Amino acid sequence: MSNLKSVIVGTAGHIDHGKSTLIEALTGTHPDRLEEEKRRGITIDLGFAFLEENGVRFGFVDVPGHERFVKNMLAGTSGIDLVLLVVAADEAIKPQTREHFDICRLLGVARGVIALTKSDLVDADSLELVRLEIEEFVKGSFLATAPIVPLSATTRAGLPELKQALVQAAAEVPGRETGRYFRLPIDRSFAIKGFGTVVTGTLISGHVAAGDEVELLPEKKLLRVRGIESGGKSVGRAEAGQRTAVNLAGVKHSAIRRGMVLAAPGRFRATKRADVRLELLPSAQKLKHRAEVHFHLGTTETIGGVELHGKGELLPGERTLAQLRLREGVVAAHGDRFIIRQFSPVVTIGGGMVLDPFAARATRKDTGRIPFLETLERGSRAEILRAMVDRNVLGVRAEEIVGRTGWHSDEMARTVGELIAAHAVRAVSAEPLIVLAEPLFAEICAKLEPRVERFHTENPLSPGISREELRRSLGRRVRAESFRTALEELAGRKKLVLEGELVKKPGREIRLTPEEAKAKEQIDEAFRKAGLAVPSVKEVLSQLAVETRRAEKILQILLRDKVLVRVSPELVFHRTALERLPALLQDYKKRKGERIGVPAFKELTGSTRKYAIPLLEYLDRQRLTRRAGDERVIL
Ligand SMILES: Nc1nc2c(ncn2[C@@H]2O[C@H](COP(=O)(O)OP(=O)(O)OP(=O)(O)O)[C@@H](O)[C@H]2O)c(=O)[nH]1
Ligand SMILES: [Mg+2]
To answer: Which pTM value belongs to this model?
Structure first.
């Protein structure tokens, strides 16, 4: 069973041309399920049937031909591998033959088989005429070389030939992306007695297994997979390219609708603004900038406004890059195909491919958008990543790369690795991974060095600039991670030295002039001599021969070197004075017990109240004492 190739075939064609009858003739299952369908003899909603033939497991999606149900047809056609275009010999090509054909082409269906049904109703000459008409119709298209098989579901003539043509076309269907993240656009939700909720759809990427946790979008609800069926059989796991029924725990079937998506948790999210490649059908009327349209993607539909990039209007048959503003959030990934239909009257007018599912608002100033989108459309993975990174001065997070490209995180990591090795990007953070374009990174480095240099020139008495101040000088358009990495880079290249919170140029020593050196000694001396009865800072500085600003810098140096210690905003003590305190306290504790009040402390240290309180608070902070009411406990 596992070596069967799964291929999804969607029918297409005008109403009453014999699509459902043909599916029944091929598979034994009549795809029409609804009471109303049986009564009216037409298909209204999607029908499903399966066939195993020559090593291929065909999953058929039968669509309605009625023009009023094209939106159901759209939900069924996205995700098919092959189209079975049905043309009745007695009617030939009709409006929905054309519309369905256009839809298949716009959705990127690459191949198919053409069934010329009801051949029992016409003579050989008429049959030949219709065949010519069809050949003319598909000329130059994806169906140009598709076999045209005349048949009759009534007499069963031509059915073996059709099966053979399907098997042959199936052999050419390439394998799907099973390595990407799981995504299943839902086309039905119902309940089965004893099983609970079941949803079905065409699995378009990745795989899903019983026991998996999946996310229902756009609801963002986590659910557990109880079981899986594919092709009408219970299976442990289903892969991209298979019709899949998922039995879900923890949700009512009525809470799930066509258009919702089951996906790998956290990997997809809904978007309301996407940049796309858009193509207008030759049969459509011209499309104006900002026109409203019906938008269909996967099994979902909503209304959207079309903003043409750099154009006032789009002429029939033309292509352009555009931005779609969607009324409701839609789960979309790079490369997804979509269809647009005219607002009113509702007819298919075009479609295209999603390039950037999380586009920024379109602005006139953004001249880089068009080349960027062209790269997204045609570029290699490395080119795409590079273009994304180049457009973002802040750098790009791994999560964003995966979200905008639809790549698996392994593919993303490999591509990032290639670009790092090629020195095109720089990882400024590993966890979470954030990459920045190398030229932008180099620019940050280039700004930092002269900034530090200038700081030294302007502040000769300061040992270095604080990281915080240096960071601020770069402005807000630099991430903290980029700044940190740039500092490390420059430190590694020995261009800068990092010392705790300070950044300086290497070999940069504070060079004091003789007067400054003298002043430094004087300050040191003044505080040392004072012991615990310290003078005010102002008083000391005012007695120096150097100007106040420089005197303050010298004080800073003494504080930084911990010769002096700031105990309160106003009070500075010499280290040697403070170093005496623990011994004094311990001695007191031995003599008088562990509690000491403010008066006793004043007496012990020979200080006044003005000093005693800040000193005690300092000692509390140093955990040498602990406050207990009005007293302190010596620790
Ligand atoms: N004589 C003859 N009649 C056919 C053949 N195939 C289908 N029919 C008849 O054509 C009518 C329409 O067939 P359907 O299979 O319902 O057509 P359909 O394309 O599915 O129609 P919609 O789903 O409504 O678009 C039915 O009455 C069929 O019995 C055929 O090969 N020969
Ligand atoms: Mg039908």
So the answer is: 0.79
